[in-house]
Design a protein that fits this description.
MPAB/Lcp_cat_dom; 2 strands; EC 1.-.-.-; mainly alpha
């Protein structure tokens, strides 16, 4: 291996490790070993679309988009603002979410069920009243349904735009059907199972969505003031810009985000594809050699990818 190859390999390892640690947390390596190494049946086989989507670096943009879109339901946003601690511990919240996605997507069936049971127990304790006097309950199937469809649409759209290998229409329908299994386990009633049903479900919530000051504050925190070192601010800004560009115009208006022209959006997309490709490169080890033949394949996204 020549010096330039060694330097590139070292850079890849450092970047990949830094991203993985941020997203998966201090227990990331241990969790990954258990998720992929523990024997037993899985909720989803290796050929299922959910593994393709959740294992791609496009999830970085899709995850940001989901947070912004979800914030536009005032009851969901009130619950997050009062109970999630997203300002005080944003990385912890991300790491818990990424681990949940990884366990339910790739892990043994009993581990997936345990993860769901833990989330349901947390939801059962999250109740309160908004500043306008509306009651919220995180275990409400209708509210859970909004969180689910906003997340699924965001992950799907990001994968269509920035995924390494976008799926065909049947594949994306299969992805939505896969996520419905997790949603039902969490308490969602009759989640959508294809793109037509997903669009219809999103439409039923449109009249309930409205901007609140809490939602706008969350957007400013997520997009403008992330707790990141300066070296990571520029790449994150590109992720955030592509996230904003992918939101529907009404959502951007509600959150007081910049409106981009069609030309600006078209120019933005290549930056998103380049950045997700760079993340994918950093988190995927080089082909095995005699020296590193036992190195496992790292994740392309939120934590752990199938080996």
């Amino acid at each position: 291996m020549d010096s330039s190859t060694r330097a590139a390999s070292g850079l890849r390892e450092r970047l990949g490790s830094a991203i993985f640690t941020r997203v998966a947390g201090p227990a990331g390596l241990e969790n990954r070993a258990r998720i992929h190494g523990r024997p037993g049946p899985r909720w989803f086989g290796p050929d299922r679309p959910i593994r393709t989507v959740h294992g791609d670096a496009s999830m970085f943009i899709g995850g940001l988009r989901a947070l912004l879109l979800q914030s536009l339901h005032p009851l969901a946003m009130a619950a997050v603002a009062a109970h999630s601690g997203y300002r005080g511990d944003p990385w912890g919240r991300l790491q818990r979410t990424s681990t949940f996605l990884a366990v339910t997507t790739y892990g043994a069936a009993d581990d997936a069920q345990q993860a769901v049971d833990q989330v349901r127990a947390v939801h059962g304790r999250v109740r309160g009243t908004t500043s306008s006097g509306e009651s919220y309950d995180a275990a409400d199937p209708h509210l859970l349904g909004w969180v689910h469809v906003a997340e699924v649409e965001s992950f799907l759209l990001a994968h269509q735009r920035y995924g390494e290998a976008p799926l065909d229409p049947a594949g994306y329908d299969g992805y939505i059907a896969d996520t419905a299994r997790v949603a039902e386990a969490l308490g969602v009633t009759d989640p959508p199972r294809n793109r037509k049903q997903l669009a219809a479900s999103l439409g039923t919530y449109r009249g309930e969505l409205r901007p609140t000051e809490e939602a706008r504050e969350a957007a400013r925190f997520i997009l403008l003031h992330p707790p990141l070192p300066w070296a990571a601010r520029a790449p994150y800004a590109l992720l955030a810009a592509n996230c904003v560009a992918s939101l529907p115009r009404w959502a951007r208006t509600s959150l007081e985000l910049p409106q981009l022209s069609g030309i600006a959006e078209a120019c933005m997309a290549p930056t998103g594809r380049a950045l997700t490709a760079a993340i994918r490169w950093a988190m995927t080890p080089p082909p095995p050699t005699v020296v590193n033949a036992q190195v496992p394949r790292d994740s392309g996204t939120f934590g752990v990818e199938d080996g």
